[in-house]
Inverse folding.
């Protein structure tokens, strides 16, 4: 091999305070793992000597603990975008130790190219193979890797032998030209290939190769329970009724599905519903449930940005690559999350809300309006441009002390304009064509937990007139009751008029 | 002519309670004017006899008073979408007499085709010419006309001789196929023609022709003043500095500009700025300022959905059609506002906010969170997918009693994720890559009126921690102070902790 072999520590020694690093990967899948571990130590040593050591970080989405966790604990993050889900990083950014900016995932690559964000001078990519002429074959995700590889002055490769070389071919790497010379992104079906299976870089930019053999750090998702399973059945029954009504084509449409146990339950229920034909996925994260349904023939193709699979499921895929490489394709997030393609393909978009309000607005990111949970992720890329945009949430949290449906969301990520259907374990609110008061009545009737129905009906009577009958004195009183007493049901209307 | 000629009253007599009508036009431009006037009388007569008479209305955007005003005053509107700006209709929907649902303008045609909204059984189109084989040439706007003409069972034409037959050719009518067989919309530059200059319908659906000779009901926009002119200069200076920094191509990019006196001032200032090259427009509403800059050679092409011009400006265009038909093209709103095209062309998107908050969220629609002003219009279609999304607003209203910049918007239409630059008469807040606290500091420093700076700085100190330092007790206190005392400066922090 033509490239210099380095240890992780040797690579980390070539990274300096103030550097800005772009990483491969999307979720923990496909992220480098060893150079950042060494870099965390290097940062701590520098800081112990009184020297500053902070870097800027661009990723596809969340990462494994060896990036966000290690570097957050080392206080080595100057800024971070576009998404995270690590406990220690979350604590750091909620203390505002690290500047975090939450971004639609499809936008990051072009904002880097446009110069809207500081240029990444270093890229660290996890690869399953690399050729002497600079062809890099990625592992189980793509993310922003093509763009940061092109922009960076210096590239480090973690060549991870855990991933088979036969994975080559599963990726479809395509970077659009920028305005004013951009053309269409020529994807017309989830399986369409438009690029090449590798990232091509100038070999002189490759500063070294670190060889590893490590599985992804994908944690287990919380298993389904009765509430999530009921949400899944409600989604599946709703979709089958839409097919019967002729509002979804009988041949069905590609599905985008969010991440986590609700998403797994939704796909599982769709797989079991005999009125829904075998279907295709066009999404960002391919989860375990997709692999299971693919083996059953219920999912016929999945285009995504990452294989965010448990280790047993990923090994299953790797042991049957001949089967799965015909049915799975990994794209850069600029393409997997493209608004152009979401609208053209007509995605059925199913995402999870942290909180919804009775007028159909969604909070995807902030707990009680202040604390960042993870980030908006791809939900905004998809829901705005989908054929049909569905949001799901359990109706309550913390044993009923929190209603997921409130008078006014404490932070708003998806406005009423992007939310067509809201589904909880209690039922389905179809908001299409409804005015705000009609939306409120429909959501309270169909989606709210019984113990909150009367409270929300009373809220609507609090005397405000207008197209959207909010009461600005009482609008956030559910949250304030929770902050003050630990239970939203203790809301005090008397002080709220 | 092969079609039955009708008076407006005869046409109105063929429309019944419960009918759902789709209209041509976008703003007052291109809207029918006489059948609805007669229909309003018919509704009032029916109601006087104790018979219900209400219809559903789909339009491109706002209309002339002869649609929204007449029918609102006649209490004849059952539901209305997607945008309005009429005083009497506004009053009706804020009393919730009429169900109004506010929608991204690009979405309406496809939602009608998908069956998500009730089918329009009648279309009323204003035409400049019609052929015996069913080719309809529109007047000064397109809107949703192609889709409602296709879906409706019955079409009435208002053949308006005010518009010259030579207007034929200015329209480019194209309706995309629906998923799963939709292809790219092949527009790569503002001037690209992709369709035909007419709407083609089955002649048997044409129930009658009403001949008219009436100008558009386009009202005069409020003239520019020193505040709006300063906003315009701030926008123009910001754009020229972005060109110099290499973040906007030196050849510049197509501009989308909202409606009203600020938009006119912005385009005027861009025209005067010598660092900005002659540019092209890709927008929904073509206003007077575009025509003026076209004559000066500062705007070289304008693609829009309507010619929303004052009568003198429209007559100027009609008297020099040979010149302007080379430089102006009118498209359906599904194409003028297409997210796919906005992102591909790389639009510089400039829209007006009703209210912004210190974290970069925008309220475009609701006064103090409850009263609908107009609607979201195309702002969401453009800002989410633009190359660069700019929002403008005067820093205060009502002589300083209202700050347009508040701790938390009282209604949210465009989240922090869609707002990259905020500009008032005081200056420019560049929010790209900033965390929430950085955004707040930048907005307060650069955009807020002097009399509100300290109040907003104090708000940020109100003790909440977290990534986004909102205080949910005080977040809406500016609005509550205004509702209770008529002046936001009377905000009472003591009750807000």
């Amino acid at each position: 091999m033509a490239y210099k072999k380095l240890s992780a520590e040797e690579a980390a020694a070539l990274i300096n305070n103030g550097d800005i690093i772009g990483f491969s990967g999307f979720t923990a899948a496909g992220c480098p793992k060893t150079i950042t571990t060494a870099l965390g130590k290097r940062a701590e040593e520098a800081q112990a000597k009184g020297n500053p050591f902070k870097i800027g970080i661009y990723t596809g989405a969340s990462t494994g603990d060896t990036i966000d966790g290690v570097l957050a604990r080392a206080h080595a993050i100057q800024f971070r975008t576009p998404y995270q889900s690590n406990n220690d990083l979350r604590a750091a950014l909620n203390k505002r130790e690290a500047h975090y900016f939450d971004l639609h995932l499809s936008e990051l690559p072009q904002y880097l190219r446009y110069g809207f964000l500081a240029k990444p001078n270093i890229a660290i990519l996890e690869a399953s193979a690399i050729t002497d002429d600079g062809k890099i074959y990625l592992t189980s995700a793509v993310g922003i890797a093509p763009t940061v590889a092109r922009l960076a002055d210096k590239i480090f490769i973690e060549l991870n032998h855990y991933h088979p070389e036969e994975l080559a071919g599963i990726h479809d790497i395509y970077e659009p030209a920028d305005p004013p010379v951009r053309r269409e992104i020529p994807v017309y079906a989830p399986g369409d290939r438009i690029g090449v299976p590798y990232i091509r870089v100038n070999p002189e930019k490759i500063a070294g190769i670190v060889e590893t053999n490590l599985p992804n750090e994908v944690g287990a998702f919380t298993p389904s329970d009765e509430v999530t399973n009921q949400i899944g059945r409600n989604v599946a029954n709703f979709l089958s009724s839409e097919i019967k009504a002729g509002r979804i084509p009988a041949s069905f449409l590609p599905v985008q599905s969010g991440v986590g146990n609700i998403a797994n339950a939704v796909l599982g229920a769709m797989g079991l519903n005999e009125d829904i034909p075998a279907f295709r996925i066009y999404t960002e994260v391919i989860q375990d449930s997709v692999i299971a349904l693919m083996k059953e023939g219920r999912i016929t193709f999945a285009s995504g940005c990452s294989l965010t699979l448990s280790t047993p499921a990923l090994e299953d895929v790797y042991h049957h690559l001949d089967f799965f490489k015909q049915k799975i394709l990994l794209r850069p997030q600029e393409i997997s999350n493209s608004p152009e393609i979401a609208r053209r393909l007509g995605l059925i978009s199913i995402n999870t809300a942290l909180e919804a309000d009775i007028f159909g607005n969604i909070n995807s990111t902030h707990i009680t309006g202040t604390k960042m949970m993870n980030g908006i992720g791809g939900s905004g890329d998809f829901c705005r441009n989908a054929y049909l945009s569905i949001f799901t949430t359990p109706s309550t949290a913390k044993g009923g002390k929190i209603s997921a449906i409130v008078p006014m969301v404490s932070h708003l990520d998806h406005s009423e304009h992007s939310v067509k259907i809201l589904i909880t374990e209690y039922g389905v609110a179809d908001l299409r064509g409804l005015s705000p008061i009609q939306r409120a009545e429909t959501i309270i009737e169909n989606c709210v937990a019984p113990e909150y129905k009367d409270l929300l009906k009373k809220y609507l009577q609090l005397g405000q007139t207008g197209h959207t009958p909010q009461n600005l004195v009482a609008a956030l009183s559910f949250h304030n009751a929770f902050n003050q007493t630990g239970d939203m049901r203790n809301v005090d209307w008397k002080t709220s008029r």
